C-alpha cells in the first residue's frame, strides 16, 4: 500500500535525507479507539471476564479507560476487531499503552501486537509484560515487529493473569506506530522553502486514506471541498498567546520559535505520557467534510506529535467523543533531536467526514513522549 498521504514538507535537502534514511513513522489511527473515548467500538468480546469502558476507575487521560475484570482465576483477555486495523507487508509496527494494575490479584498484564492474515491467523507477534501491581498507570512498550508477506491486519491482544474472580486491571491510550521503510532512492525532494511558503500552500491535496481503511474515508474526487477547521478556530496562530486554547496535562506557553511565524505554542511534556492543548468548535454540520492541519516541529525526543479531531454529539463537546480522526504524525529520534537544523512539517487529517450525529468537535494538538522531557512547537492550526 502506498502511503501517498504523508505530507512532509521538508525545509532543507539535508532534512529530507534524514527523513528518507529513517523511514516515515505515523501513529496508526487505531479503529479500536485505543483511548477508549469511543465506547466499545472496535473491541471484540472479552474472554475470562468483562470489559467496562468508562471513568468508573481511574483513567490515564480523557474521560474513559478500559477496565478489565476477571470472573475467575486464570487469564482474562481483551482483543481488537483486527479487521478494523489494516497493516502492510514490509512496514514495521510497534505499540505503546498505559496499564494500571491496582492490586496483586493481577500478577501480570501482557500486551501483544499480532500481524495477521486475512483470516485473522497470526503470522508474527511481539509482546511485552508488566508485573503487577503498579503505582497508577505505567507505560508498556511493545517492540517493533516487521509485517511479513500476506499480512493484512494488526490485532491487539491484552491479557491479565488473575488469581481469582474480581481481579481487575485498566488499560488506556493504546497507540500503534507504523514505520514505512524508506523508498528506493528516486525522487529527491527539490526544495528549500521557507516556513511561510509551506503554510501558505493550501493547494496541495489532503492526505488520502489508507486503502481499505474503514475509518478515514477518502475524499470523493468530485465531492465537496472540506471545510478547514482553521476557519472556525480562534487564535490558531497563537498571536494572542494561548487565548482560547486549554491545556490538558503538561504545560504550554508561547514563544518565537519558527522564523516568520510570529508567536507559536510550545507544548511541553515533562514525563512519559501524552499531553495536549485543545479548542472546542461548535456548529459542526453532521456529515459535512472537514479538515484540520498544523505546522509542527519537535524539540527533544518526540515519540509522536499530531493533530486530532474528536467529534461529539452534543453542541458543547462534552461527554464521550463519537470518534476521532488523526493526522499523520511527526517524530524525532535521538539523532534528530540533536540535529542542528530544526524541521518544520505541516500535518493534516485530510478530508474527514463528521459523523452523522456530530454537532461539535474538539481540535487537539497532541504530544506523546516515552523518555525525557520534550516539546512540540505548534502553529497555524
Ligand atoms: Ca482514555
Ligand atoms: Ca504564529
Tag the structure with descriptive keywords.
globular; 2 domains; disordered N terminus; mainly beta; 43% strand; 6-stranded antiparallel beta sheet; Jelly Rolls; 3 helices; binds calcium ion; 381 residues
Structure in words:
5% of the residues lie in helices and 43% in strands. It contains three helices and 24 strands. Strands 1, 2, 3, 5, 8 and 10 form a six-stranded antiparallel β-sheet that branches. Strands 12, 15, 18, 19, 20 and 23 form a six-stranded antiparallel β-sheet that branches. Strands 13-14-24-17-21 form a five-stranded antiparallel β-sheet, with no helix packed on it. Strand 13 (251-256) and strand 14 form a beta hairpin. The radius of gyration is 20 Å and the shape is globular. One calcium ion is lined by residues 237-239, 261-264, 379.
- Tell me the major beta sheet: 6 strands, antiparallel
Model regions low in confidence, pLDDT < 50 over at least 5 residues: 1-22, 186-222
SS content category: mainly beta
* Number of discrete domains: 2
Beta strand count: 24
Assigned CATH class of the largest domain: Mainly Beta
The CATH superfamily name of the largest domain is Galactose-binding domain-like
How much helical structure, as a percent, in the residues? under 10%
Q: Determine the mean pLDDT.
A: 80
The termini sit apart by 29 Å
CATH topology of the largest domain: Jelly Rolls
| 3D shape | globular
Number of helical regions: 3
| Oligomeric state as shown | single chain
**What are the distinct ligands in this entry?**
calcium ion
Strand content: 35-45%
The arrangement of helices and strands along the chain is HEEEEEEEEEEHEEEEEEEEEEHEEEE
Rg, Cα atoms, Å = 20 Å
* CATH architecture term of the largest domain: Sandwich
